[in-house]
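Now for one record:
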Amino acid sequence: MVIFMVNSLKQFFSNRSGGFGLEVTPERINLAQLSKAGQNYKLLKYCSVDLAEGIFEEGKIVDPASLAETIRELITTNKVKAKRVATALPLKESIIRILSVPSELDENELRELVLFQEASLYLPYPKEEVDLDYQKLDFFLDEDEIEKVNILLVGTKREITDSYVDTAKQANLQLEVLEVNSFALMRILKGQLQQFSDREAIVLVNIDFDNTEIVIVVNGSPQFSRTVPIGTVQMRTALAKAMGIPFSRNMDILQGVSIPATRFDSLSTQGTVTNPGMNALTRVVGELTDELRRSINFYLNQSEDLEVAQLYLAGPGAGINQLDEFFTQRLSLPTIQLDPIATLSLNIEEEISQFQRPSLGVVLGLAMRELL
C-alpha cells in the first residue's frame, strides 16, 4: 500500500471519489463525507465520538488497536459504507520546507535532487527513517534571471506514518491520503486565498486541544509553520481552576464564555474584567497572542515588502465568542473565525452551532479529498 504524504499537494484542490475524511485528535474522532453537484456541496455524513485518554497523545497514536476499534464503532453506528479514507497528521509531526531548484530538471532529475540530496539538509533524523514527498509550486526568475521552481517538501518519521497505516488496516479501511492538518484547512480556503496578492501573507491559526498550529501562507503556499503548546486544554484548565470546579474534557465550559474585546493588561488589577475565571482564561489567550505575534514578526523580518492581510482562526478553540475581536485588537490585524459551512456554501440537514463550526475545518478539508 502506498501512502502519499502530500497527495493533496499532487492534486492540491482536486476531487476524488467514494470516501470520507477522518480527523483524529486527543479527545475526539471526527468523520465527514461530502457530495458535490455542480458548484454545490452537501454534507452527507458528519459524526464524532469521544476518544479515551491514552490512545492519541502529543500528536502520536499510542494505542492503534483501541483507536481502530473506536473508529469501527463510529462507522458502524453511523452506517458509513465507504472504505476509502483521507486523514491528517498534526503539524508538529511533519517537516515542511520550501526549496528552489532549476526548472529545467526533468522528473527523474528532480526526484533525485529533492529526495536524495536536498532533503537530507533539512531532516533532523536519518533519511532512511523518514517518509518524504514533494510537489512543484510556482516558477520564478532569480536575481540572475534564471528560471527556477519552488518545491514543497514534506516529511514525517516513518514510525508515525506506519502507526496510521496500521490503524487503518485494523479498522478495515483503505488509507488513501495522509496529509498535514494545515493542508486540509487551505483546501477549505481555496477561494479566499486566491483573492490575495503575492505580497500579502495569510495566517492560519488552528487552535486544537493541546496545541495551536500557526501557518503563514503566501501565494497559496505554506511558507512558515510552528506549533505552540497552548490549546483548549490549557484554557479549560485555567478557567476551571479559577472557578474552583473540576476539570472536564467536555468543551461546554468554553461555549458559554465571551473573551473581553476591550484592550487591557490581564495581569493588572486595573483591568476591566473582575471575574477570576475570565481573567484566567484571558491570560492564557493573551499568552497565545504573544506567541502569534512572535511568529508573525519572525517571518516578516525575513521577508521584504510583505504584509499580513488576514488571520483565520480554526479548530475547537476558535469558536470562543469574540476571540476574533480579541486577536484583532491585540495584534492590529484583521481576524476571522473560520466557518467552513458558510465558506463552502455547504448544504446541511441539521444545524451546526457557530461555536462548533470552526472545529470542522480539518475534517471537511479531508472530506473534500474524497468527493464524487
Remarks:
- The CA atoms of residues 188 and 365 lie 5 Å apart.
- The chain has a mean pLDDT of 89.
